[in-house]
Amino acid sequence: xxxxxxxxxxxxxxxxxxxxxxxxxxxxxxxxxxxxxxxxxxxxxxxxxxxxxxxxxxxxxxxxxxxxxxxxxxxxxxxxxxxxxxxxxxxxxxxxxxxxxxxxxxxxxxxxxxxxxxxxxxxxxxxxxxxxxxxxxxxxxxxxxxxxxxxxxxxxxxxxxxxxxxxxxxxxxxxxxxxxxxxxxxxxxxxxxxxxxxxxxxxxxxxxxxxxxxxxxxxxxxxxxxxxxxxxxxxxxxxxxxxxxxxxxxxxxxxxxxxxxxxxxxxxxxxxxxxxxxxxxxxxxxxxxxxxxxxxxxxxxxxxxxxxxxxxxxxxxxxxxxxxxxxxxxxxxxxxxxxxxxxxxxxxxxxxxxxxxxxxxxxxxxxxxxxxxxxxxxxxxxxxxxxxxxxxxxxxxxxxxxxxxxxxxx
Length: 410
What we know:
By secondary structure, the protein is of the alpha+beta class. The chain is built from 10 helices and 15 strands.
């Protein structure tokens, strides 16, 4: 039988339990209200590590991975769920010395398009833990290689005409009393100095196109006017080589671009066609609108370009026929300029070629949007005569703003 005292104690305990439960629930509710919304600091740190452009791996004192991000796999810092042995060995030294150190984590074997130069830094975190951070320096290494190659090529190309001018000048001094010899050597000095000046001019133009200077604002340009001006620039060299340049009828097409640069690019293509064509062979220009792009094609019946060299003709100082290019005074930069002019206009340059048959270079530039083609002139320029050329499918040659890029065949 329950006594009044026991009943009172039971009721009191129940009340105390209810009060304590209420206080705990209220305190928990207040903590929930004070807790900030959004991710915690730990979650943010994890996101930071995973989104980092550098490879990050945390190792314990046994060399086992505690944490890593996806970029560590891409850079080769982690393979088959294990850290690179070079990183683990460096981590052991860092734990012993408690001093950070740098290590080379570049791939030991080149495979495909993987990073070529990876530099790692190992830092102590305390309690036997270390962090290895890997950075991809491949692009900087490639750019440095391109720079060295470019400087070497420029030095070689400048050395040739400068050396020739010096030797010819000595010959002139030795033959000062022989008028005919002085005149002959003087002509050679003039040709070499002209070639030297052309080389410097084209180097400056190429540096501007590659981003050293801001390009002019693009305007609406008449394609027919570009063709006429480029023809005018190449008339002398074509007549000297006994080559006739013909064109199709005026098109009235418009593009958005810089007229001077477009004339330079087309002139380079024409000069290239003339330089690599036998005397008496034809060179033609055609233009048309295809899928919103204006195509300006230059076709020759010259020596052609081997398939394994077609990707290289746009490299700086590359010549498919070095002896012929030297004799015509080419600098090896003409097609590089064409490629960059096309790229800076949002277009591309295509190439079709077959040794012994000839070549077709095609400039593809976006057409002017929002305007009908301009009315074609009633009479074509006197220097232009239509010629039907065989239809060819130009082979597309990459002109990305890529790239490391060289280019030239003139």
